[in-house]
Sequence to fold (504 residues):
Amino acid sequence: MTYASSFRLLAAALVGLFFYSWSNGTVLAGTGGDDATYWLTANFFSPYSEPLLPAAQVAQRSLYPPLYPWVLAIFGGGESVLSAHRITAGILLGALVVLYQCGRRLGLTANKALALVILFAGCRVTLLEGLDLHSEHLYLLLSVGAIALVINARERPVPLLLAALAVTGAYFTRTFGLTLCASFVLWLVFTHPPGGWRYGLVVIAPIVLWSAFHSGSGTYVSDLLGSYAGNSIVGQLTNNLLQLQIAWLGCFGEIGQPGFFPLVPLILAIFCVLGTVHRLRTGAFDGLYVPAYLTLLLIWPYPVEYERLLYPILPVALLQGAVGTLALSESFSRAGYAVLMALLLAAVIPFALLVQARLAAPPEDSGYQPYLRTRAWYLSDPVLAFTNLAYQRALIEALQDVRQQARVPKDACLLATKPALVALYTEVQVDGLPAFTLSNRELERVIRNGRCQYLFMMMSISPAFPQAYFPYRRIGSRLTVLAAYRSPMFGFDNPAALLAHLPP
Fold:
């Protein structure tokens, strides 16, 4: 083994050790519902133990493709949040290895491919997503794996069959996998590999069957159409484009973060676009995929998710930027590649330094230790970061109190704005609250006639429920408050959450 190969192996090992430690969380990384939905679904399908009481309901109502929670369940991730984080970290590391191999197959030297992978691993979006139980990690592994298999495999049946299976798996991991499927089928049509129709059938048939029997596909379509029904299409697309630009910057840092210059990611975007054009002109599968993915992203009705959705396409775009730069004449390629790497390094360093500073100076209160592997702690504003950290701790401790003190009877159920999150920590059945747009009288009537008369009301707001403690401020006089979960950070009058009951 040469010195260079030993160095690369050591660098890869250090990246692996870092992400294993980085992702070692015993609580969820945020207060959204996706992580909780994935974990409870994995818990429901786990063959190793009996599922939690609310797991079946969450799994049956989930609109998400099933492959990621199935993978978690098979490998023991449904047994605890910690084990799920460790398995997800392993999936991410596998994706980084495949990304390296993809770079090598596209002509990058070992050192250049490794440098690109390490810099992508250090991006803000990669580090933050590395804290989450999100299906994007598995999607990244499968999509980059499919791209790597297709390269130089036009005449070989086994890699193309594996690529078709990876493409299909990507669709059953993320709905955005539809763009990978369409690009693969188009690539088969354009290149005419032997037996190409068979590989196309491997991709198309499962999608048709799944769409026919799964309601989630129709929900996304109706949401997409509904988002444009009452708005100007041009206005909506213009807003989406602006949000996409903001999300691209967010992949590397926060605006206003010390040392972060937004111009750097914007110049990086130019390199990536030129690289994508180069790959598209060569008729490459990945050259078709990136424009298809970005087109769906541009019309997607949930721009708040753009940063997360950019994560699995970012390494492909960076790789295309590198390949496109190296395809220039020799006099320009070396200088261009050096500029690309320097820009990427400049984009990555500020958030890496922020992470190092936060890890080196945790809060003195040891009770915050489990929450240092959550997104809240890595906001650039230290005051805002600690405030969010305190809220997340108070909220989760409140939910754990509901479970530990059996404040809700096992045969009863809760109403909450984040049903899956509340269900995971309380281990009781949870339904979503009625729509915010209902009148006070109608709101009370719907709750009273429903199956759940217990309510868990949080300080935080969301687009669907833009009022703290909803619906306490609307029908609070009708409710009996069972517990108010206060935190010293927010004062007596601003509890993190309220537990209440609507009496008969």
Q: What stands out?
A: The CA atoms of residues 439 and 445 lie 10 Å apart. Strands lie at 413-416, 429-432, 454-458, 480-485, 497-501. The mean pLDDT is 92.
